[in-house]
Specification:
homodimer; about 200 residues; mainly alpha; Arc Repressor Mutant, subunit A; 2 domains; elongated; DNA-binding
DNA sequence: AGAATGTTTGCACGGTCTGAAATTATTGGT
DNA sequence: ACCAATAATTTCAGACCGTGCAAACATTCT
């Protein structure tokens, strides 16, 4: 990778880091783009070459998209053949993504912190999830051979996104991410939904 | 109601109307607050006395909250005792709200139109739904006697919101709203979820 | 080294939104 | 009907966001 590329990544990280740090220190309202750019030692104009908005610098690039390969496997009906189990696999892959695990974990924690302290970020964040949800719906539709706009796929995808949204809050952060614990939590969550809406039981 | 109050409502409606009309005519990007204010025959500053942002004028006041009474009934375990049926009742009430039915219908159609044409409005809209979702979760928790932050309530609420989001697209708009049709669609939707996540069946 | 290409910067501008003070309209009492 | 209290509107100045453009600068490739 050339010098040019490395420098770009460096300033990108610098900008993002400065944005997050300053926002946590002073609150989003009391931080200007100019200050962020100054902290990263670039001009304010350059900030906007990297991020379209201040929010974008804070929320980072969209995670929540599964790897090419994992999506493929899911669509083909794998890896286990059981819908819920495979869905869980796909979701965990989407969340923990490809890269370094600890890094990803740190980002998630940071995002959580920011969202808690700066509710203004919520709309943008939800919009991201919404995009991810649509992709997931497409994958589910493909797997089950239904037309792409089948309402059931959208519905299942939406519920699945709710599940990860609410379940991931409970996954023990900290040292190293306990994937098995996450998997168990997800299983229970989906089970609850089945019970709530299923034929046989009602809460 | 005094003259003062009536005038306020009038300008509010004028502003909102002008905002919607101009946006549908030219696209959100090509309409300034100044123009909206001018069309409503007030100053631009006054616009901001009524709405915090341009978006707010377009999306209107938050619907999606059930009536006081209906919420009460739901929390107490009514009206039928069947969880899903009662949930559907509550959702329909939230959507169609208290006021005039035709009016509400028109607003919904207008919102749909705006959201289709101006995707920038989506984040804000999703944030509203999110707020509604939290209220719904609280109601569900109350009804089932679980602690307010019980994960299952949040989960069910989230799925329910997904259901109405995706189902209401299919409800025939137009003449007068077919509530029975909506009810049936909702039943099917919840049934699909039960099947997708339930013990016995898998798609 | 020098041309080609990509990145950063400065500048000017249109737009959103906020605060404060001056102005105008409504209300209620007399 | 008048007048004081109260509330809404307007004007004005200003901070900040985000974009287009062209000049300056750095890097890559030959």
């Amino acid at each position: 990778m050339g010098l040019r590329e490395r420098k770009k990544q460096a300033t990108r990280r610098a900008l993002q880091g400065a944005a997050v740090r300053l926002t946590l220190e002073r609150g989003l309202e009391n931080v200007t783009v100019e200050e962020i750019a100054a902290a990263a030692e670039v001009s304010a104009r350059t900030f906007f070459n990297y991020f379209a908005t201040k929010e974008e610098a804070l929320l980072g690039d969209g995670p929540f998209t599964p790897g090419e390969h994992e999506r493929e496997v899911f669509v083909e009906g794998g890896p286990t053949g059981d819908f819920v189990e495979d869905l869980i696999d796909l979701l965990i892959d989407s969340l923990l993504g490809s890269g370094d695990l600890a890094t990803h974990q740190a980002e998630a924690a940071r995002r959580k912190e920011l969202l808690d302290r700066e509710p203004q970020l919520l709309p943008g964040f939800l919009a991201r999830l919404h995009r991810a949800e649509q992709e997931l719906a497409a994958a589910i539709a493909e797997r089950s051979g239904t037309p792409a706009d089948d309402i059931r796929s959208s519905l299942i995808a939406a519920s699945a996104m709710s599940v990860i949204r609410h379940t991931m809050k409970r996954v023990p952060y900290g040292d190293d991410p306990d994937i098995e614990a996450a998997r168990t939590l997800l299983r229970h969550a989906f089970r609850s939904l089945g019970e709530a809406f299923g034929r046989d039981e009602r809460p």
